[in-house]
Amino acid sequence: MGSGVISFGLVNIPVKVYSASDSSGKISFNQLHAERKTRLKQQMYDPETGEIVPRDKIVKGYEYAKDQYVVFSEEELEQLELATSRSMDITEFVPLETVDPLYFESGYYLGPDKGAERAFKLLTAGMADMKHAAVAKYVRSGRENLILLRPKGPGLVMQMLRFSDELKSQAEVPIPDATITDAELGLARQFIQQLAKPSFEPTQYRDEYREKLKDLIDRKVKGETVTLTPVAAPVAKVVDLMEALKASLARQGAAPAAAAPESNAPPAEERKPPHRAPRSEAAAKEAPAPKKAKGKK
Questions:
Q1: What are phi and psi for residue 35, nearest 5 degrees?
Q2: SS3 for 69?
Q3: Which segments of the chain have a pLDDT < 50?
Q4: What local confidence, expressed as pLDDT, does residue 237 receive?
Q5: In 60-126, which ranges are E strands?
Q6: How far apart are CA 155 and CA 128, in angstroms?
Q7: Nearest to 161 by CA among 214, 217, 120, 100
């Protein structure tokens, strides 16, 4: 898709950029005339005159005041991009787990350009060994991008990042406080444990909606009449949290465990003395009576 240069200190590593996504399976629709079934086209027009404006008559403008624009040509924007360094200048290395995924946008694979194999491998191995990622800036498609370079297998992934001012603060989301009990928390942990896996395996998931849509398209192409039954939407209602958690565990085939005691002492069942068989009446009569403690004279 392009090329660049990873730069840090006095080291420059030429790299090539490859797409990491595959959109070949994506299903898209065209807009048609409802009656004639002809494909519609979008056109730009002048709202004052109604004139259709051809592509070669369209320029880019920035509105700096109400209905006041400063115009830029494509050549000016290209020159601005060329005048800016195209290198991926690493500014810092950070632990990967400290980067919130909220900042992630699209991702691309990076591979070494000709002659940069050893330097590329050294940087990749060093970051993998340290479990660190590199933060850098990279000018692409007419804008400066904040990127994260992270090791993946023998190569690197260039993760496009959002700038901090492009994310809204979570403080804007109303989250009233609530109280939960230790017993509820224990059941929640048990439910999570039932579904816990050692790692994320994306290959076990598939786009079921796309599969159904593809099947629907095939049936319509064959002229079949299709009738779909909508699935009832889940009803949001206030429920007994403990009972809901117990029912969820039962659905997973696990019986809810008894709530753990709040203290560090072992459960009462573990502290019971070992069970002894009851003595017979004869044995009880033969057993010597306990001696009385001698008092002081």
A1: -100, -45
A2: strand
A3: 259-297
A4: 58
A5: 60-65, 68-72, 87-95, 104-112
A6: 10
A7: 100
| Rounded (10°) CA dihedral 266, 268, 271, 276 | -160
Number of H helices, E strands in the chain: 6, 9
Helix axes 241-251, 182-195, angle to 10 degrees: 20
Supply 126's token pair: 């060093």
Phi/psi of residue 136, nearest 5 degrees: -150, 170
Q: Give the model confidence (pLDDT) of 198-246 as tens digits.
A: 877 778 777 777 777 788 778 778 888 877 777 666 655 555 666 776 7
The Cα–Cα gap between 51 and 58 comes to: 13
pLDDT digits (tens, 9 = 90+) for 263-276: 444 444 444 444 44
Question: In this structure, what token pair is assigned to residue 247?
Answer: 């029912």
CATH number for the domain formed by residue range(s) 2-20+47-166: 2.40.290.10
Asked if residues 17 and 110 have their Cβ atoms less than 8 Å apart, the reply is: yes
Model pLDDT, residue 206: 78
How does strand 132-140 pair with strand 104-112? unpaired
Give CA–CA dist 140/79, Å, rounded: 13
CB 83 within 8 A of CB 128: no
Q: Can you give the pLDDT at residue 277?
A: 45
Q: Cβ neighbours of residue 8 under 8 Å, at least 6 residues apart?
A: 89, 90, 134
Q: Is 256 exposed, middle or buried (0-12, 13-18, 19+ CB in 10 A)?
A: middle
pLDDT value at position 180? Answer: 84
